[in-house]
Amino acid sequence: MSVEDGGVPGLGRPRQARWTLMLLLSTAMYGAHAPLLALCHVDGRVPFRPSSAVLLTELTKLLLCALSLLVGWQAWPQGTPPWRQAAPFALSALLYGANNNLVIYLQRYMDPSTYQVLSNLKIGSTALFYCLCLRHRLSARQGLALLLLMAAGACYAAGGLQDPGTTLPGPPSAAATSPMPLHITPLGLLLLILYCLISGLSSVYTELLLKRQRLPLALQNLFLYTFGVLLNLGLHAGGGPGPGLLEGFSGWAALVVLSQALNGLLMSAVMKHGSSITRLFVVSCSLVVNAVLSAALLRLQLTAAFFLATLLIGLAVCLYYGSR
After folding, report:
1. Tell me: the pLDDT tens digits for 142-162?
2. Which among 133, 198, 254, 271 has most CB atoms closer than 10 A?
Protein backbone atom coordinates (compact mmCIF):
# COMPACT_ATOMS: atom_id res chain seq x y z
CA MET A 1 0.00 0.00 0.00
CA SER A 2 1.47 3.36 -0.99
CA VAL A 3 1.51 6.61 0.93
CA GLU A 4 -0.96 8.10 -1.55
CA ASP A 5 -3.29 5.18 -0.93
CA GLY A 6 -3.36 5.90 2.77
CA GLY A 7 -0.77 3.48 4.08
CA VAL A 8 2.94 3.52 4.75
CA PRO A 9 5.12 1.26 2.59
CA GLY A 10 6.79 -1.61 4.41
CA LEU A 11 4.72 -1.54 7.59
CA GLY A 12 3.59 -4.83 9.06
CA ARG A 13 0.13 -5.30 10.47
CA PRO A 14 0.99 -4.23 14.07
CA ARG A 15 2.72 -1.04 12.91
CA GLN A 16 -0.11 -0.34 10.46
CA ALA A 17 -2.50 -0.61 13.40
CA ARG A 18 -0.41 1.93 15.34
CA TRP A 19 -0.44 4.22 12.31
CA THR A 20 -4.23 4.01 12.16
CA LEU A 21 -4.46 4.72 15.89
CA MET A 22 -2.23 7.77 15.47
CA LEU A 23 -4.49 9.12 12.71
CA LEU A 24 -7.57 8.57 14.88
CA LEU A 25 -5.97 10.35 17.85
CA SER A 26 -4.97 13.29 15.67
CA THR A 27 -8.50 13.51 14.25
CA ALA A 28 -9.94 13.52 17.77
CA MET A 29 -7.53 16.25 18.94
CA TYR A 30 -8.24 18.44 15.94
CA GLY A 31 -11.97 18.07 16.47
CA ALA A 32 -11.75 18.76 20.21
CA HIS A 33 -9.84 22.04 19.83
CA ALA A 34 -12.79 24.42 19.25
CA PRO A 35 -15.09 22.87 21.92
CA LEU A 36 -12.27 22.92 24.49
CA LEU A 37 -11.53 26.53 23.62
CA ALA A 38 -15.22 27.37 24.11
CA LEU A 39 -15.07 25.81 27.59
CA CYS A 40 -12.30 28.28 28.46
CA HIS A 41 -14.63 31.26 27.94
CA VAL A 42 -15.37 33.56 30.86
CA ASP A 43 -18.30 35.93 30.32
CA GLY A 44 -18.34 34.98 26.66
CA ARG A 45 -14.67 35.80 26.04
CA VAL A 46 -11.34 33.96 26.06
CA PRO A 47 -9.67 35.23 29.27
CA PHE A 48 -6.06 34.88 28.03
CA ARG A 49 -4.08 36.31 25.14
CA PRO A 50 -4.22 34.08 22.03
CA SER A 51 -0.50 34.73 21.48
CA SER A 52 0.16 33.25 24.95
CA ALA A 53 -1.56 29.99 24.00
CA VAL A 54 0.35 29.77 20.70
CA LEU A 55 3.69 30.49 22.39
CA LEU A 56 3.08 27.94 25.17
CA THR A 57 2.02 25.35 22.59
CA GLU A 58 5.24 25.84 20.61
CA LEU A 59 7.28 25.72 23.81
CA THR A 60 5.57 22.49 24.92
CA LYS A 61 6.31 20.87 21.55
CA LEU A 62 9.95 21.95 21.81
CA LEU A 63 10.31 20.53 25.32
CA LEU A 64 8.70 17.21 24.34
CA CYS A 65 11.07 16.85 21.37
CA ALA A 66 14.09 17.62 23.55
CA LEU A 67 12.88 15.11 26.15
CA SER A 68 12.46 12.35 23.54
CA LEU A 69 16.07 12.86 22.43
CA LEU A 70 17.49 13.09 25.95
CA VAL A 71 15.84 9.91 27.25
CA GLY A 72 16.62 7.99 24.07
CA TRP A 73 13.11 7.55 22.65
CA GLN A 74 14.67 8.58 19.35
CA ALA A 75 18.35 8.06 18.55
CA TRP A 76 20.64 11.09 18.39
CA PRO A 77 22.56 11.12 15.05
CA GLN A 78 26.15 9.93 15.28
CA GLY A 79 28.95 12.47 14.99
CA THR A 80 28.57 16.23 15.05
CA PRO A 81 24.92 17.36 15.15
CA PRO A 82 23.97 18.59 11.65
CA TRP A 83 23.08 22.13 12.72
CA ARG A 84 23.33 23.40 9.14
CA GLN A 85 20.23 21.39 8.33
CA ALA A 86 18.29 23.47 10.84
CA ALA A 87 18.30 26.62 8.68
CA PRO A 88 15.57 25.52 6.19
CA PHE A 89 13.12 25.09 9.07
CA ALA A 90 13.25 28.85 9.68
CA LEU A 91 11.16 29.28 6.52
CA SER A 92 8.64 26.70 7.76
CA ALA A 93 8.27 28.56 11.06
CA LEU A 94 7.92 31.87 9.20
CA LEU A 95 5.21 30.49 6.89
CA TYR A 96 3.25 28.97 9.80
CA GLY A 97 3.60 32.20 11.78
CA ALA A 98 2.42 34.32 8.85
CA ASN A 99 -0.59 32.06 8.37
CA ASN A 100 -1.59 32.11 12.03
CA ASN A 101 -1.56 35.90 12.04
CA LEU A 102 -3.37 36.17 8.70
CA VAL A 103 -6.29 34.24 10.21
CA ILE A 104 -6.77 37.01 12.76
CA TYR A 105 -6.21 39.83 10.26
CA LEU A 106 -8.71 38.39 7.77
CA GLN A 107 -11.60 38.89 10.17
CA ARG A 108 -11.41 42.65 9.54
CA TYR A 109 -12.35 42.28 5.89
CA MET A 110 -15.07 39.61 5.92
CA ASP A 111 -17.64 38.03 8.20
CA PRO A 112 -16.79 34.76 10.00
CA SER A 113 -19.16 32.64 7.87
CA THR A 114 -17.58 33.82 4.61
CA TYR A 115 -14.13 33.09 6.02
CA GLN A 116 -15.12 29.60 7.18
CA VAL A 117 -16.55 28.69 3.78
CA LEU A 118 -13.85 30.20 1.54
CA SER A 119 -10.93 29.03 3.67
CA ASN A 120 -11.63 25.52 2.41
CA LEU A 121 -9.85 26.60 -0.77
CA LYS A 122 -6.63 25.72 1.08
CA ILE A 123 -7.42 22.08 0.31
CA GLY A 124 -7.03 22.87 -3.37
CA SER A 125 -3.85 24.90 -2.84
CA THR A 126 -2.29 22.09 -0.78
CA ALA A 127 -3.07 19.58 -3.53
CA LEU A 128 -1.59 21.97 -6.12
CA PHE A 129 1.71 22.40 -4.26
CA TYR A 130 1.74 18.67 -3.48
CA CYS A 131 1.73 17.91 -7.20
CA LEU A 132 4.16 20.68 -8.18
CA CYS A 133 6.74 20.40 -5.39
CA LEU A 134 6.68 16.67 -4.66
CA ARG A 135 5.95 15.67 -8.27
CA HIS A 136 3.04 13.41 -7.38
CA ARG A 137 0.24 13.06 -9.87
CA LEU A 138 -3.31 12.74 -8.62
CA SER A 139 -5.78 10.66 -10.57
CA ALA A 140 -9.14 12.06 -11.65
CA ARG A 141 -10.72 9.98 -8.89
CA GLN A 142 -8.40 11.47 -6.25
CA GLY A 143 -9.01 14.97 -7.58
CA LEU A 144 -12.75 14.43 -7.28
CA ALA A 145 -12.26 13.22 -3.71
CA LEU A 146 -10.46 16.45 -2.79
CA LEU A 147 -13.23 18.50 -4.40
CA LEU A 148 -15.73 16.62 -2.23
CA LEU A 149 -13.61 17.47 0.84
CA MET A 150 -13.76 21.15 -0.08
CA ALA A 151 -17.52 20.93 -0.55
CA ALA A 152 -17.91 19.14 2.80
CA GLY A 153 -15.94 21.83 4.64
CA ALA A 154 -17.93 24.62 3.00
CA CYS A 155 -21.22 22.84 3.74
CA TYR A 156 -20.34 22.35 7.42
CA ALA A 157 -19.10 25.93 7.82
CA ALA A 158 -22.26 27.30 6.23
CA GLY A 159 -24.59 25.67 8.75
CA GLY A 160 -23.46 22.39 10.30
CA LEU A 161 -24.33 23.51 13.84
CA GLN A 162 -27.15 25.65 15.20
CA ASP A 163 -27.84 27.30 18.53
CA PRO A 164 -31.17 25.92 19.85
CA GLY A 165 -32.21 29.48 20.72
CA THR A 166 -32.01 30.64 17.09
CA THR A 167 -33.85 29.73 13.95
CA LEU A 168 -31.11 30.48 11.47
CA PRO A 169 -28.40 27.84 11.00
CA GLY A 170 -24.81 28.97 11.01
CA PRO A 171 -21.50 28.70 12.84
CA PRO A 172 -21.85 28.75 16.66
CA SER A 173 -20.06 32.07 17.00
CA ALA A 174 -22.40 33.69 14.54
CA ALA A 175 -25.56 32.19 15.99
CA ALA A 176 -24.88 33.36 19.51
CA THR A 177 -25.01 37.03 18.60
CA SER A 178 -26.97 39.19 16.19
CA PRO A 179 -26.21 37.89 12.70
CA MET A 180 -23.55 39.75 10.74
CA PRO A 181 -24.33 40.27 7.04
CA LEU A 182 -22.28 38.22 4.60
CA HIS A 183 -19.55 40.38 3.10
CA ILE A 184 -15.99 40.37 1.82
CA THR A 185 -13.92 43.28 0.56
CA PRO A 186 -11.56 43.10 -2.46
CA LEU A 187 -8.57 43.32 -0.11
CA GLY A 188 -10.10 40.56 2.01
CA LEU A 189 -10.40 38.32 -1.05
CA LEU A 190 -6.74 38.91 -1.95
CA LEU A 191 -5.64 38.18 1.62
CA LEU A 192 -7.77 35.04 1.69
CA ILE A 193 -6.12 33.78 -1.50
CA LEU A 194 -2.73 34.57 0.05
CA TYR A 195 -3.74 32.70 3.21
CA CYS A 196 -4.75 29.60 1.24
CA LEU A 197 -1.54 29.67 -0.81
CA ILE A 198 0.67 30.05 2.27
CA SER A 199 -1.26 27.27 4.03
CA GLY A 200 -0.68 24.85 1.16
CA LEU A 201 2.95 25.88 0.67
CA SER A 202 3.84 25.63 4.37
CA SER A 203 2.41 22.12 4.61
CA VAL A 204 4.08 20.78 1.47
CA TYR A 205 7.41 22.56 2.11
CA THR A 206 7.60 21.09 5.61
CA GLU A 207 6.76 17.64 4.27
CA LEU A 208 9.55 18.01 1.71
CA LEU A 209 12.09 18.90 4.42
CA LEU A 210 11.02 16.11 6.75
CA LYS A 211 11.33 13.48 4.03
CA ARG A 212 14.55 14.65 2.36
CA GLN A 213 16.61 14.97 5.51
CA ARG A 214 17.82 11.68 6.97
CA LEU A 215 17.48 12.83 10.54
CA PRO A 216 15.37 11.64 13.48
CA LEU A 217 11.95 13.26 13.45
CA ALA A 218 12.44 14.54 17.01
CA LEU A 219 15.59 16.43 15.94
CA GLN A 220 13.82 17.91 12.92
CA ASN A 221 10.96 19.00 15.16
CA LEU A 222 13.52 20.46 17.58
CA PHE A 223 14.80 22.66 14.75
CA LEU A 224 11.30 23.67 13.64
CA TYR A 225 9.92 24.47 17.09
CA THR A 226 13.05 26.37 18.16
CA PHE A 227 12.36 28.82 15.33
CA GLY A 228 8.65 28.68 16.19
CA VAL A 229 9.27 29.64 19.82
CA LEU A 230 11.59 32.50 18.85
CA LEU A 231 9.11 33.83 16.27
CA ASN A 232 6.09 33.62 18.56
CA LEU A 233 8.04 35.06 21.49
CA GLY A 234 8.76 38.11 19.35
CA LEU A 235 5.12 38.37 18.26
CA HIS A 236 3.91 38.05 21.85
CA ALA A 237 6.36 40.67 23.12
CA GLY A 238 5.47 43.03 20.28
CA GLY A 239 1.75 42.62 20.76
CA GLY A 240 1.49 45.58 23.11
CA PRO A 241 0.16 45.66 26.68
CA GLY A 242 -2.22 42.96 27.77
CA PRO A 243 -2.61 40.04 30.17
CA GLY A 244 0.55 38.26 31.31
CA LEU A 245 1.78 35.02 29.76
CA LEU A 246 -0.19 32.76 32.12
CA GLU A 247 -2.87 35.22 33.18
CA GLY A 248 -6.38 33.87 32.68
CA PHE A 249 -5.24 30.27 32.19
CA SER A 250 -7.39 27.47 33.62
CA GLY A 251 -7.33 23.70 33.53
CA TRP A 252 -9.25 23.80 30.24
CA ALA A 253 -6.70 26.20 28.76
CA ALA A 254 -3.84 23.93 29.83
CA LEU A 255 -5.63 21.02 28.16
CA VAL A 256 -5.97 23.06 24.95
CA VAL A 257 -2.22 23.78 24.94
CA LEU A 258 -1.26 20.17 25.69
CA SER A 259 -3.62 18.68 23.10
CA GLN A 260 -2.45 21.12 20.42
CA ALA A 261 1.18 20.34 21.21
CA LEU A 262 0.65 16.59 21.01
CA ASN A 263 -1.36 16.98 17.83
CA GLY A 264 1.41 19.05 16.26
CA LEU A 265 3.88 16.23 16.95
CA LEU A 266 1.45 13.66 15.54
CA MET A 267 0.99 15.77 12.40
CA SER A 268 4.74 15.97 11.84
CA ALA A 269 4.85 12.15 11.92
CA VAL A 270 1.97 12.03 9.44
CA MET A 271 3.80 14.37 7.08
CA LYS A 272 7.13 12.52 7.38
CA HIS A 273 5.73 9.02 6.96
CA GLY A 274 2.48 9.84 5.17
CA SER A 275 1.67 12.97 3.17
CA SER A 276 0.11 16.42 3.26
CA ILE A 277 -2.95 14.90 1.61
CA THR A 278 -3.35 12.51 4.54
CA ARG A 279 -3.25 15.57 6.80
CA LEU A 280 -6.10 17.14 4.79
CA PHE A 281 -8.27 14.10 5.38
CA VAL A 282 -7.47 14.14 9.10
CA VAL A 283 -8.49 17.80 9.36
CA SER A 284 -11.67 17.22 7.35
CA CYS A 285 -12.70 14.15 9.36
CA SER A 286 -12.17 16.15 12.54
CA LEU A 287 -15.24 18.20 11.59
CA VAL A 288 -17.37 15.23 12.62
CA VAL A 289 -15.64 15.05 16.03
CA ASN A 290 -15.99 18.82 16.42
CA ALA A 291 -19.72 18.71 15.72
CA VAL A 292 -20.43 15.78 18.05
CA LEU A 293 -18.46 17.34 20.92
CA SER A 294 -20.10 20.73 20.33
CA ALA A 295 -23.51 19.11 20.48
CA ALA A 296 -22.65 17.19 23.67
CA LEU A 297 -20.71 19.87 25.57
CA LEU A 298 -22.10 23.15 24.24
CA ARG A 299 -25.72 22.06 23.67
CA LEU A 300 -25.61 22.97 19.96
CA GLN A 301 -27.88 21.19 17.50
CA LEU A 302 -26.69 19.19 14.50
CA THR A 303 -28.38 20.27 11.27
CA ALA A 304 -28.99 18.63 7.92
CA ALA A 305 -25.86 20.41 6.63
CA PHE A 306 -23.75 18.45 9.14
CA PHE A 307 -25.07 15.10 7.92
CA LEU A 308 -24.54 16.16 4.29
CA ALA A 309 -20.95 17.19 5.12
CA THR A 310 -20.36 13.85 6.87
CA LEU A 311 -21.67 11.99 3.81
CA LEU A 312 -19.39 13.99 1.51
CA ILE A 313 -16.36 13.27 3.71
CA GLY A 314 -17.18 9.55 3.69
CA LEU A 315 -17.50 9.56 -0.10
CA ALA A 316 -14.19 11.44 -0.40
CA VAL A 317 -12.39 8.88 1.79
CA CYS A 318 -13.82 5.99 -0.24
CA LEU A 319 -12.87 7.64 -3.53
CA TYR A 320 -9.33 8.53 -2.52
CA TYR A 321 -8.34 5.44 -0.53
CA GLY A 322 -10.74 2.82 -1.93
CA SER A 323 -9.62 0.10 -4.30
CA ARG A 324 -9.58 1.13 -7.92
Report:
1. 999 999 999 998 888 877 666
2. 271
